[in-house]
Design goal:
Layout (H helix, E strand, L loop, with lengths): L24 E5 L2 E5 L5 E2 L5 E4 L2 E4 L1 E6 L5 E9 L2 E8 L11 E8 L3 E8 L5 E10 L5 H5 L10 E3 L2 E6 L2 E8 L4 E3 L4 E8 L4 E9 L19 E4 L2 H16 L1 E3 L7 E3 L11 H10 L6 H11 L17 E2 L8 E2 H19 L3 H21 L14 E2 H20 L5 H18 L1 E2 L6 E2 L2 E2 L5 E2 L27 H12 L31 H13 L3 H17 L8 E2 L10 E2 L8 H12 L4 E4 L4 E4 L10 E8 L2 E7 L5 E5 L5 E2 L2
Parallel strand pairs: 31-35
Antiparallel strand pairs: 1-2, 2-4, 3-6, 4-5, 6-11, 7-8, 8-9, 9-10, 10-17, 11-16, 12-13, 13-14, 14-17, 15-16, 18-32, 19-20, 21-22, 23-26, 24-25, 26-27, 28-29, 30-31, 32-33, 33-34
Length: 660
């Protein structure tokens, strides 16, 4: 009897790889985005192009001068929304190897490009210039997945070309108008005459259906007044770039266009990511409460209503957590962050009437937390699933800051939440702490059966992030003083501090990967949380070392930190390595620069009480430093940190008094 033939094994479907973008020059002014290669020529290959609201309006923009491709010299970002590409052309008008025409292309996120040609010759030049244009009008998701269609046929439109596919349309217009436009080849042509030393500029403007100088949906950056100046000029550059990048990611809410939030990052996540948008707004609170208020309103409108276990929860997608744990729920994270961010925004000066409007949503978040707790008193993420270390830290912070908010607003339940937080501290110490000869460590998570996962990860930084209470006080943390000191020692050791920031997992843990999102790569957000938490807990040496490493990494990335980068141990002459799929700029990475730098000042406001205290990081690790353009209690705020680490308020609202 013949043996039965087993069914053929079907290999698991494989998600398409994201195209590498670490070498791309990216301009963003949400919802507009331009992705260019370093040489500046948009060739129609890969992900490069001009995008608006997720659709590629132009995929090909190839410049030829005198029948030649210009030789690329440099491509660089000028600002969050602008980039410049320098190249040269040798026409043969002069003997020798020197270029005789310089080409400067300045590309804007709004779809504008200025091409300037300058003659270096001693005699007049007459040179042909042509620009080859094309597009597929594909969605960014299709481009990333390799499913973009072929280029569409072009039609001559006024002083340029037009492409149409269904309801989608793109127009590229030129000034001065081209001498010739060939729709069949997608070509615009000019004959330019240049006298010695003369420059001529061609401007291309790409839009959905008409030429627009700036997208109407773009949000004016409310954080732009923030400045830093001091002994280390890199601090000024890092803060300026971080503020510009965060502002460039602001998107209007479709339901209420007056409210704007920070999109998660480009190119992959130019949209609302509840947890990351909220954390970015929280880290930017010293620059004003407007972004936090708008983000909270946007998320409150998404909050789950009605009866059921999800009532009060803010929806959010799952997010990968590395090879050791299943994906976590960003909705859990944002729901726990909501009352904490509202409570801290009130301390920074959010108007009481605005707080009152958001308070019911915060109360619903706390009610969801009450109902979501497991029988063991911990919060699973997702349920059923592991009890993650950072999730318990977020829940503890939500309880304490939520209690502070409820009490300040005359609502009931504050004492109950404080008692629950005290119980959680006891349970956490009993269940999450893994003893060892080196002093022990917090478990990364508890399995559903209660077994600890004894991995040392960057999530431990959240145990030091306690939150701000009334009177400029810090909320008590989940750990006692002895274990807080142990976590500080672990985070400051080379296994976690690679010299460029905090690793997301210790170097000798099983499964460590220097490029792993949660298994070894540096995530600036976690590094900034660690810097601020260490500073607040009094571990200035560890905080200063991490901060200097972050600043050095920021310098190597042109002060635009990606959402993650590889964490090889720092050695002489080394540099951090870019992750090929990382978003850059990213909201939490940009806000991390603000959070880490301002931890040097240790500003602790209590706007309702009319006080503000300064607890600067001792030792002034970056030397003398002045921050201005901040906002406390609705008014301008400026602070100076001396080289001795002493803080002085230089500007503040009239109603504020300097506290102890």
């Amino acid at each position: 009897m013949p043996h039965p033939v087993p069914p053929a094994r079907v290999p698991p479907s494989r998600r398409p790889d994201l195209p590498p973008v670490h070498g791309a020059v990216i301009c963003v002014a949400a919802p507009c985005l331009v992705i260019s290669p370093e040489h500046g020529q948009l060739t129609g290959q890969g992900i490069d192009g001009i995008y608006r609201s997720g659709r590629r309006l132009l995929s090909r923009c190839v410049l030829r001068v005198d029948g030649r491709d210009p030789v690329a010299v440099q491509g660089r970002s000028l600002d969050a929304d602008r980039a410049a590409f320098t190249s040269t052309v040798r026409t043969g008008a002069e003997a020798g190897p020197d270029p005789d025409v310089g080409v400067e292309r300045v590309r804007h996120a709004d779809g504008t490009e200025r091409i300037t040609l300058r003659s270096f010759t001693a005699r007049p030049l007459r040179i042909p210039v042509e620009v080859s244009l094309g597009t597929d009008l594909a969605e960014l998701a299709a481009v990333a997945a390799g499913r973009a269609g072929p280029e569409l046929p072009a039609a001559v439109h006024a002083a340029g070309l037009r492409w149409t596919s269904g309801d989608a349309q793109a127009v590229t217009a030129a000034e001065p108008p081209p001498d010739d436009a060939l729709a069949s080849a997608g070509l615009l042509r000019w004959q330019l005459e240049l006298r010695p030393g003369e420059s001529r500029t061609i401007e291309l403007r790409t839009a959905h259906d008409r030429v627009a100088r700036a997208p109407a949906a773009h949000v004016v950056n409310p954080l732009a007044d923030a400045r830093a100046e001091g002994d280390d000029p890199r601090a000024e550059a890092w803060l300026r770039t971080s503020v510009a990048d965060l502002g460039a990611l602001l998107l209007r809410d479709r339901r209420e266009p007056a409210d704007a939030y920070a999109a998660a990052g480009v190119p992959w996540r130019l949209g609302l990511a509840p947890a990351e948008s909220l954390w970015a707004a929280r880290m930017a609170l010293p620059l004003g409460t407007g972004l936090a208020g708008a983000t909270l309103r946007v998320l409150a409108r998404t909050q789950t209503g009605g009866p059921g276990g999800d009532a009060g929860k803010i929806p959010g997608p799952l997010r990968g957590a590395g090879p050791q744990l299943p994906p976590g729920c960003t909705g859990t994270e944002s729901t726990l962050a909501f009352p904490a961010v509202l409570a801290e925004a009130r301390r920074w000066g959010m108007p009481e009437e605005e707080v009152a409007l958001l308070l019911p949503a915060a109360e619903r978040c706390l009610e969801w937390l009450r109902g979501a707790l497991g029988e063991d008193g911990f919060l699973a993420d997702p349920d059923p699933g592991p009890r993650r270390c950072e999730t318990q830290a977020h829940a503890h912070r939500a309880a304490l800051l939520g209690a502070d908010l409820l009490e300040a607003c005359g609502r009931s339940g504050a004492e109950e939440w404080r008692e629950w937080a005290a119980v959680l501290r006891e349970r956490f110490a009993a269940r999450f702490w893994v003893d060892g000869p080196d002093g022990g460590r917090p478990a990364a998570a508890l399995h559903p059966d209660g077994r600890p996962l004894p991995r040392l990860t960057g999530a431990a930084a959240h145990l030091l992030d306690t939150g701000l209470l009334g009177g400029g006080r810090l909320a008590p943390g989940l750990l006692d003083r002895v274990r807080t000191e142990q976590v500080a020692r672990l985070l400051g050791a080379p296994a976690m501090d690679c010299g460029w920031g905090l690793r997301s997992m210790a170097v000798r843990e099983p499964g460590h990967n220097p490029f792993g999102y949660r298994s070894g790569a540096v995530r600036p957000y976690e590094s900034a949380v660690a810097v601020a938490g260490l500073a607040q807990a009094g571990f200035e040496k560890e905080a200063a070392a991490l901060l200097r490493g972050m600043l050095d990494a920021a310098e190597s990335f042109g002060y635009r930190l990606p959402e993650m980068y590889a964490a090889e141990q720092r050695t002489a002459g080394s540099a951090p390595l870019p992750h090929p799929a990382a978003c850059r700029p990213a909201a939490v990475a940009a806000a991390a620069g603000i959070h880490a730098l301002l931890s040097l000042a240790g500003i602790r406001p209590d706007a309702p009480a009319g006080t503000v205290a300064l607890v600067p990081l001792p030792g002034a690790p970056l030397g003398g430093l002045r921050f201005s353009g901040l906002r406390v209690s609705g008014g301008p705020f400026a602070v100076r940190i001396s080289r001795l680490g002493l803080g002085m308020v230089e500007e503040a609202a009239d109603a504020l008094q300097l506290g102890g």
